[in-house]
Amino acid sequence: MNGVTTVLTGTTNPTGLGSPSFADPALFVADGGIQLWQVTRLPLATATNGPNNTGGTNRLLETTAPPVRTGHPLFSTVPGISNRALYDYAHINLSGPNKILDENDTSTVELEQYFLNTDRQKLALQVGWNREDADRQNWNLVGRASATGNSNYLYVDVNSKLLDGRANPYFLRPYIGIGEPVHDSSPYLRDTFRGQLAYLLDLTREKNALRWLGRNQVVGYSEERVTKSYNYRFRDVNIRDNPIYAPAGQSKGNQSAPPAGFGSTAPIATRGYFRFYVGDTNGQNVDYAPGPIRYGDYPFSWFNPQTNQWVTDTATLAEAAIQEGVGTTFASQNMIKTRGVVLQDTLLQDRLVLTWGKRHDENLNKFARQSVLKPNGYEYDYAAMDGWVGDWAKRSGDTTTKGVVARPFRGWRMIDEQAKAPGAAGFAGRLLAGLGVYYNRSDSFRPETPAITVTKEQLGNPTSEGKDYGFTLNLWDSKVVLRANRYTTAQVNSRNGQFRTFGDRIMRVDFAGFAGNPDATALQRQARNWVTQFNPNFSPQQVEAEVYRIMKLTPEEETLYRNGPLGETQDAKSKGDEIELFLNPDRFWTVKFNATRTVAIDANVAPHIPAWVDLRRPIWETIIDPRVGTKWLDTGYNGDNPQAGSGTPRAFLQNNIVAPINLARAIEGKNRNQIREWRFNASASLRLAKFFSDQRHLKNTTVGGALRWEDAATIGYYGNPINGDIAAATDYDPDRPIRDKAHTYIDAFVRYDLRLFRDKVRAHVQLNVRNLQESRAHLVPVGAFPDGTPHTFRVIDPRVFILTTTFDL
Q1: With helix as H, strand as E and coil as C, how does 202-254 read?
Q2: What is the pTM of this model?
Q3: Angstrom distance (rounded) from CA 516 to CA 144
Q4: Across all residues in the chain, what is the average pLDDT?
Q5: Which residues of 353-364 are buried (b: 16+ CB within 10 A; e: fewer)?
Q6: What does the pLDDT look like over 205-240, one tens digit per residue?
C-alpha cells in the first residue's frame, strides 16, 4: 500500500515456477465492463525473481471479510450490512449480475373413449402421454457460496499500486469480491404415461329405495413417469491455451492438475477472482449496482518467472465446463411407477360423501457416468457422458386416504320450514340446514433415493400421517359462510430438515476435501502433511496406510462415505387451526376474514450424528500434531501449516455441528424458528354502485383493501454465558428465545370497469397499493447472534403501486 510492496512470508516456493505462480488472477469489473485482468499473487522462487524478493509471495492486499468474532464460539455468522449509509438497499440491487433463464417445451396427447354413456351408467377410458423438456440456466453469482468461499462480502481496494508497479486506478474504491463463481445448467426431460378407467353408477333418478344409494364412482389408474435430470456446472474463465500456465488440453474450469514443471501445487491461472466495483473513493460506500461481465478477448497481465518479466497477452473470457470428481452424480434417471384405485360414494341424497383411496408407488433410480471434457479442456463431451451405470435402486410403498363429508340435515322438509321462521327458531333451523362436518385421514409414503447415515445404516423412506376435521356453516343462501378446520401432520424420517447436510459436515472433520470443501482442519489433510514431513522416504502407499492408522479408519470406510450419499433424518410434527368467514350480504360488497394458528415442531432430531461424535471423539482427543506438539483438535491451521490463532478442528466441530444439534434437541416440542404462530387477514371490496347508482363514473368503481397481521417469531436463542461472559458461550439456552416483533401490513385497491367499442369489449383498470403503511424500505431481522444482536435481515419494501389493465374479448 502507498507504493510499498507487502510480502506474505511463511510460504515455501519450490525451485522453478513455484506455487501459486498465477493464482487468483483478478478481473476488475467497473464502469460498464471488465477494465483490467491481472494476477494478484506473485511467487518469488529464486534470488533473481523480481523486485522486493524475500523468498515469500507478493500479493495484492485485501481487506478482510466482515469479522466473525475471534474467541466467540457461537458467533460464527458474518453480520449483514444494515447501515443505509454504507448500502442503500432500498434503491440499489447488489445482485444485479444475477439472472435466471427458464425454457420449457411441453407436449400432450390424450385419448378418451366411452364404452357406456347413459344416465345411469358410464364407463370411460382415458390414456395420455405428456413430455416436458425444460432447462434452467442459473447465473446466481453474487451472494452465492462459491467453490472457494463465501460471496457478497463488501471490500475496499487498499492497493495504491498494482503488482507490476502501475498506479491502481481503483485505489480506495469498494467492491464485492467473488472467487471463481459457478453457474449451472439444469436440463431435464420427463415423459409421463397415464391411464385411467372410470365407472360411474348414478341411482339418484331411481323411483325406489335405490335412489338413497346415490352416485358411486370407482377410478383405477396407472402412471409411469421417467425423468432424466442433469446438472452441468460452469465457470467463467480464460479458455485460451498458453504453453506456460495453461497448456492445451488442461481443464480450464478445474485446472486441478499442474502442468509439467509447476511443482506439486496446481496453479489456477485460468480461473478468476471477480472484483465488482460498486462505488467511488468517497466514503467507501455502495453507490451503484455491480456492472455486467461480457465474454470476449481482454488483455491479461501476468509475470513470467522464467524470463523475470511481466507479460501482457490476450485472454479469452468464456464459459468452461467443470469436470466433476469420481463419485459425484451430475445426472440421474428416475422412474416412478404408480398404480391405485379411488372410490367415492355420494349417498342419502348428497347428505353423506365417502372417499377411500389406495396407491402403490415404486421409485427407481440410476446415475450417470463420470463427466468428461473434450480435448480443448473447456467443453463437455456429451456423447461420451451419455448412458447410465449400475442397476436400478428401487424403493416402494403404499399410501392410503379416507374421508367423510356429512350434511346430515340437508333437504329435511321440517328443518327447511323451521328455517323460514323468525327469531331464534328460524336461526337454529338455518344453522342445521347449512351445517356440514368432515373428517379426512391419510398415511403417505415418499420414496427417496438410497442413502446411508454416518453410522452406516440405510436410511428409511420418509412417511407421514395426517388428519384434519372441521365443519362448515352456509347461511342465507351463501351470504354467510363459516369454515373451521383443525389439522395435524407427522412426518417420520424426513430428509428435508435443516440437518440433511450435517452428514457431509461431520465427515469434513475427518476427510480431506469432503463434498468439495477444502477444509484446512481436516484430520486426513493434516495427518498426510506431518506423516510426509517426518517420513520423507515413505512411498505414497505407506503414507496413506499410516494416515489411516492415525485416523482409526479404513480405505473401505472412506470409499463408503465418499460415495454415499450421506443423509440424516428428523421427525417433523405440525398442528394448526384455521377459521374462515365469508360475508356476501349482496352483490355489491364482500368481506373475508381468516385466522390461522400454526405450531411446527421437530422431534427425534439427527439421531445418528451425535452417536458418531461420541464414537470418534475419544480417538480425536488422543491425536497429536507432531509438528507443534499440540492436540490436533486444538491446533489452528492456516492452509497446510499449523498456526496458532487460526480456526481449530474443535471450534469447527462445536460451532457447526455440536452446538446446533444440541440446540435443536433442546427445543424439541417448541415452535420452529421463523414460524409465526398466529396470522390474521381481513379483506373487503365494495362496488360504489350500491350508493351511487345514478353517477356515471362512480357506479363503475370498486374500492377495497386488506389488513394482514402476523405474530412475533423466534429468530434465534441466547447463549449460556460462561462465568458471565456471553462471548465464551458454547451452547444455547433453549428457554431464552430471541424474538422478532409482530408486523401489520395494509393493502388497498381501486378498480374501474368500462366498456369499449359500443359495449363489445369489457375492460378493467385497477390500481393496487401494497404495504400502504410503509413510507420507506426498512430491514426486519431474521437471524441473531447469541447476545441478541441481529445478523441477518430481509428487506420490507415501501408502499408499491401496481397499475394493471385487463380486457375481456
Answers
A1: ECCCCCCHHHHHCEEEEEEEEEEEEEEEECEEEEEEECCCECCCECCCCCCCC
A2: 0.75
A3: 15
A4: 85
A5: bebebebebbbb
A6: 998 999 999 999 999 999 999 999 999 999 999 999
